[in-house]
Each structure stands twice: as C-alpha cells, then as structure tokens.
Design brief:
Layout: H1 7-42, H2 55-92, H3 96-192, H4 204-215, H5 221-226, H6 230-253, H7 256-267, H8 273-289, H9 295-303
C-alpha cells in the first residue's frame, strides 16, 4: 500500500495527521499550565497581619507594677512613721541601754533602710511609668492591628471570590481541553488504522519527520522509514516542535482553502477505500481548523494579561 498510494495524497494525509498530533501536543501543554495555575490559586497567598501583644496582659502588668509601687510607698511611710516615733519616744526614756539601742536602730534606719526603701520606691515608680507607656503603645498597636485585620478580611473576601471565579473558568477550560484531546486522539486512532504509518512513527516527532522529509525530497515513504532513527528524531525535533507547533496551527486556520483544494485532489483519485478514508480525515481536520479558537487557544487568551 505504501508504494501504491499517490504521493500528493500521502503528503495531504501526513499533513492532516501532523495537524491532529499538534492539536493534542498544544492542548496537553496548555493543560499542564492550567493545572499549575489551579494549584497556585487553591493555595491562599494573603498573609494576615502579625498579632500584637494583648492589652489585657499589659494591663495586668501595669496593675501588678502599681501594686508593688503602692506597697513600697506604704512601707516607706510606715518606716518613716516608726522612725519618728522611735526618735520621739527615745527622748522620754532614761534607760541608758535602751538609749544606746535606739540610737543604733536610728542610725541603721537613716543610713541603710530609708535610702534602700527610697531607691526601691523610685525604681517601682519608674517601672510603673514604663509599663504605662508600654500600655499606650500596645493600645496604638492593637488599633493598628484591628485596622489592618479589617483590611485583610476585606481583601481575603475579595480574593476568595475572585479565586472562586478563576477556579470555575479554569475547570471549564480544562473540560474543553479534555474534550478536544479525546476527540482528536480518536481521529488519530482512525487515521493510523489505515496502517500507512508504522507503529514506531505514530507520534508527533515521527509524523513531523516524515512530512518534512517527503515534502522536501523525491524520496519514497519506504526510504524515509528505512533511514530513520526514531530516538534520534525525537531528540532533534523536540525543540523544533515546541517553536513551530502553534505557528503551524495558526497557518492552517488561516488557509482553509487549502483543505478544499486537498479535497478536490483526493476526490479526483480512483474510488478506492483508502482514499475515501483519507478524504474523511481531511474533512474532519478542515472542520477543526474552521473554528475561531481551538481549546488550547482559549487557554492562551486566558493567560494573557
């Protein structure tokens, strides 16, 4: 069958398969990008504001500091009162031993206890003042936090709403891609069932190679297959396909008349079953190319800023 098939019809057949393989390739590439975008959307990216120190804990610290300050002041006043009483009482007592003892306590109180109590009271007053200052700062921070939290909740609500819409759009596009991939693969299966292309070449790299080889030379399909190393072809054409695939489909969409001309060429051949099937393949590809946008092209439009 390979040698009996008209060369011009063979090139039409290969070009149609190349188009179908390219649709599947582009659709799978865009589906991968869609899934990556979906994964990013489903992970909420807004960071809430940092939680400040609670006012209650600082207020407790202020109250505690105030209690210590009051205790120190009361203790200092009591000490002064006792000290005065001891001094006044000592003037009316004539006992020399008591006089000596009171003098010692009096001096100890003046030199040691009173300065120490005064120092502790001053320290507690400073601590109380600092804690009040911290309380004021904490109140300001909490007011700022509440403001930022309200903004965050609003932004979160808007983001979630936007993400929900985005997820719905992504899933709709994914469904369209799945439908197009499935229908195109079915068409490819039917095209390959003609058994014109050997199994190792029934892939996008193999078809690109065969079409380019035969369209730029006078060699037969048998020779093209004989001199081909499919593993080497896949490696070499990987980047070429990545660059050319979208261009090829756009050109096909802009050249619908080519399919009409191809149809006329095929129909002019003898009424053989293989030509009828190639004619049906050409018609199906022409219908696909008449669409304003293929599913993968809708995804491209979706990703545009």
């Amino acid at each position: 069958m390979l040698e009996e098939l008209d060369r011009e019809v063979l090139l039409i057949y290969l070009n149609n398969i190349r188009t179908l393989e390219t649709i599947v390739y582009e659709s799978c590439e865009k589906q991968e990008k869609l899934n990556e975008r979906l994964a990013r959307v489903q992970v909420f990216q807004l960071e809430p504001p940092n939680t400040p120190i609670s006012i209650e804990s600082v207020e407790y610290s202020v109250r505690d500091s105030k209690k210590r300050l009051i205790a120190c002041i009361i203790g200092l006043l009591v000490f002064v009162f006792i000290w005065i009483c001891m001094g006044m009482g000592n003037k009316s007592w004539n006992d020399s031993s008591l006089d000596s003892m009171f003098k010692g306590l009096f001096v100890f109180g003046v030199i040691i206890c009173f300065p120490l109590g005064l120092f502790v009271s001053i320290y507690q007053f400073k601590e109380f003042k600092d804690s009040k200052s911290i309380l004021e700062e904490t109140k300001i921070e909490n007011e700022k936090y509440n403001y930022e939290l309200n903004r965050y909740e609003l932004a979160k609500s808007e983001k979630l709403k936007k993400n929900e819409e985005l997820i719905i759009n992504i899933k709709m596009l994914n469904d369209e891609l799945n439908t197009e991939i499935l229908s195109t693969r079915n068409e490819l299966d039917e095209a390959y069932k003609l058994n014109i292309i050997p199994l190792p070449f029934r892939n996008i790299e193999g078809i690109y190679y065969l079409f380019d080889y035969l369209s730029t030379s006078k060699e037969t399909l048998s020779n093209a297959l004989l001199h081909a190393n499919i593993d080497s072809i896949k490696q070499k054409l990987k980047e070429v396909i990545k660059i050319q695939s979208d261009i090829l489909l756009v050109q096909a969409q802009n050249n619908i008349i080519m399919y009409e001309q191809n149809q006329q060429i095929i129909d002019s051949m003898q009424n053989i079953e293989v030509y009828s099937k190639i004619s049906a393949i050409n018609s199906n590809v022409a219908l696909k190319m008449q669409k304003k946008q293929l599913a993968y092209q809708k995804v491209e439009f979706f990703f545009k800023p």
